[in-house]
Hints:
The complex is a heterodimer of chains A (304) and B (303).
Chain A: H1 2-11, E1 22-23, H2 27-30, E2 48-53, E3 56-60, E4 64-70, E5 73-77, H3 82-95, E6 100-104, H4 110-113, H5 117-121, E7 125-129, H6 130-138, E8 149-151, E9 155-159, E10 162-168, E11 178-182, E12 189-192, H7 211-222, E13 228-231, E14 238-239, H8 241-262, H9 270-273, H10 285-302
Parallel strand pairs in A: 1-2, 5-6, 6-7, 7-8, 12-13
Antiparallel strand pairs in A: 2-3, 3-4, 4-5, 9-10, 10-11, 13-14
Chain B: E1 2-4, H1 27-30, E2 48-53, E3 56-60, E4 65-71, E5 74-78, H2 83-96, E6 101-105, H3 111-114, H4 118-121, E7 126-130, H5 131-139, E8 150-152, E9 156-160, E10 163-169, E11 179-183, E12 188-190, H6 210-221, E13 227-229, E14 237-238, H7 240-261, H8 266-272, H9 284-301
Parallel strand pairs in B: 5-6, 6-7, 7-8, 12-13
Antiparallel strand pairs in B: 1-2, 2-3, 3-4, 4-5, 9-10, 10-11, 13-14
Helix pairs in contact in B: 6-7, 7-9, 8-9
Amino acid sequence: xxxxxxxxxxxxxxxxTTAMATEVQDRAxxxxxxxxxxxxxxxxxxxxxxxxxxxxxxxxxxARNIFLVTKDGVIATDPLTAKDAKQMRExxxxxxxxxxxxxxxxxxxxxxxxxxxxxxDEGAQFIAHEKCVQHFKDKPNPTVVIPDxxxxxxxxxxxxxxxxxxxxxxxxxxxxxxxxxxxxxxxKYLFAVDIATPGGAPxxxxxxxxxxxxxxxxxxxxxMDFTVMIPGHGVPIADKSSLTERRRYxxxxxxxxxxxxxxxxxxxxxxxKVRVPEFAYLRGYELNVRxxxxxxxxxxxxxx
Amino acid sequence: xxxxxxxxVAAVLALFSGAVAAQTPSLEELKKPAPNPAWNKFGVRGxxxxxxxxxxxxxxxxxARNIFLVTSDGVIATDPVSPAFAxxxxxxxxxxxxxxxxxxxxxxxxxxxxxxxxxxxDEGAVFISHEKCVEHFKDLPNADLVMPDxxxxxxxRLTLGGRTLDMLYFGKNHGDCLVVMRPDPGRIFFMPDLVTxxxxxxxTMNDxxxxxxxxxxxxxxxMDFDYLVGGHGVPLAHKSAVNERRRYxxxxxxxxxxxxxxxKSFDEIHKSVRLKEFDYMRNYKEFIxxxxxxxxxxxxxxx
Lengths: 304, 303
């Protein structure tokens, strides 16, 4: 339905900015607490823009981001890839004629921050936590636009009548990941990239994660006054309890691996034997648990 | 002189689960260049002390390994590994000299190398590490860890009783605080975890920067020395083990990049990308898929 609508819009060359992003489908279902099977319904790669709260939108393509439309322009976030950035630019134009004034990076990983040049070309300022810049310099990638503005802890982007808070909680999935939330009614939504993907088990070795700081960060997020998370992959919104579910899974996994190590289980048997069956309902559990266990083995073995 | 003492059997880390228990190869066998099957001859067995050069010893049990330098004014020790390991190590040092241990130098922050130093702290040793290790020790405290008394930010030369031990910092590679140690006269380097001679990279390669590892290994290849001591495995290996590891990593990175550029799915890449020219290496069958996975994520995310 939405595809047809978009096709119709593209066909109307003279049509002004009348299109609206769709409302979040199944909003009530997605806001039910964990465990929540509605969180498994998403299509990877399907291009879609939804309005989450007045002025706050989420674009989804190869991954997900948010953007905030103000009277003076747009605050965009992760451009994802060059292909996504181009599609996203079109999606934004269907909503507003205002320029993209800022692009904020959630963290340093290329699957989130590539492809920003299209926004740079229209004059946008790029913003990231200062530690991301070290990664960009250490491992240059021509498709990553280097940030113009950096900050050491928290930062607020102000534009028009709106603002977007960038919240830094130290190392976790990266050492420069920031959580984002807009002002006003939108304060109940937190854009939390990669710290949890609602309803799923972490992928294999848990790329980049420091398990100890991951749990710490999740606890700090659980204590914050918001109610809904917007993830960097997957469904557009999820009840905040998805963070608790991920934290409980990690803690159970860590406890199970520690117990096996303390009881002297041979290291090469641990990946095959240690399981947390109470979380077997998580999406991707069977596929990933063995490598999740390996990651915790490295954590307890060498503090990695 | 080679002194071998089987004192007890130690647990070996998961990353060495494929290693075979075997008799100790001679230093002459170990000194031959890569590919060298003698480098595979280690495993679960007793602790041993091997004198590599005048005053320079390596102590280990196959699972973990360090070096110590005996001088006229005391001993410079390195990675104590664990309380049990440090106790055996203290006894082994006493068999060589009555001098006290004056310094303990940490190679990097990982617990399988740096725990158990208290026995040396109690006799008055000063602990040394690169300054970035301290950030990790503070972030993730461990009761079995002695905090360094002294840190440095780039390279550092430690002098004691007319001998020297250089700590050489190459930036980020395996962690971000690893130092390669160079005891005088500089022909043998101690380089824990940068190279474990003749084997694939173990573990999940989490705290591991692939391009910085290749860069570091190239920098080491350009340096003038003859042999290396790793942090695991055999007591000594020819310098060409550095080149072998570097070529393996480069081949891995190139093969995974090519598969990604061809548009292969992640799953297909994990299952199909293989490096036949390196399948002679220890643990190849066991680790190759995980190495490929890690490298795919590297190219996808830049991590």
